[in-house]
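User: I'm curious whether this sequence folds into something compact or stays loose and floppy. Could you predict its structure so I can see for myself?
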Amino acid sequence: MIDIHSHILPELDDGAGSLQESLEMGQLAVADGIRIMVATPHVISGLYENSRATILTAVAHLKQTFADQGIPLEILPGAEYRLEPDLPQRLCRGELMTINDGGRYLLVELPADLVPNCTGQVFYELQLQGVTPIIAHPERNLVLARRPAQLHYLVRHGALAQITGDSVTGLLGAQAARAAKTFLRQGCVHLLASDAHNSSQRTPTLAASREKAAQLVGQEEATNLVQGNPQRVINSQMVTPGDIKETAHQSPSLLDRLRQYFLK
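Assistant: Here's the prediction. I'll summarize afterward.
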């Protein structure tokens, strides 16, 4: 399997806190059947200012350490960018780390409780530069979880969606599990990844979630989510979205309306 979203690089964000923990995460990943892992540390202005150079240096060091320790896990560079209005400008200046530094796919995280008004425009401007945005864990975004049609819109306009394995198995809560399974049934999921942060709770494992996904979409498609499509992403090849199954319109709840009012 290929895991395109992980926080295995030590001491760069809220992921692995030490090189020893990175080694433990690598061993867990290999035991679970993962052979390639993309290291995607957070990049959030004012919080995690991880540059391309920082990420490439950290990846090279971890790869060498794994080789020295006999851990057969290939580590590739990447990053998880918080959605910010200037992402297209930073991409144009060569500042962003795309998946495997291939210049084709960019992992983008939305805020947990809203879909910013600039989302569509930012994604459009990234695509004008030949880069496809991959939406990280949309099932954990409150708006997308309650109104899947908004995710459908973004996917139909060129984005891809990556859900987290622990959401499918229920380890990240009932709401994330419901949304992840809904997105799978609707055919708007393209990648399944661990979003691993440590070796004890948010671990680099995918086998259990792949089997859960297979119960919903079949073994062939579940395998595609952890092998075929991730391989295309790291090779900078085309990932072809399937047809999305429409669902009935969901009216915003009172909590949604209050949240939108106070976030204006």
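Summary: Strands lie at 2-6, 36-39, 42-43, 74-77, 80-82, 105-109, 132-136, 160-164, 191-193. Residues 2-262 form a domain with the TIM Barrel fold (CATH 3.20.20.140).
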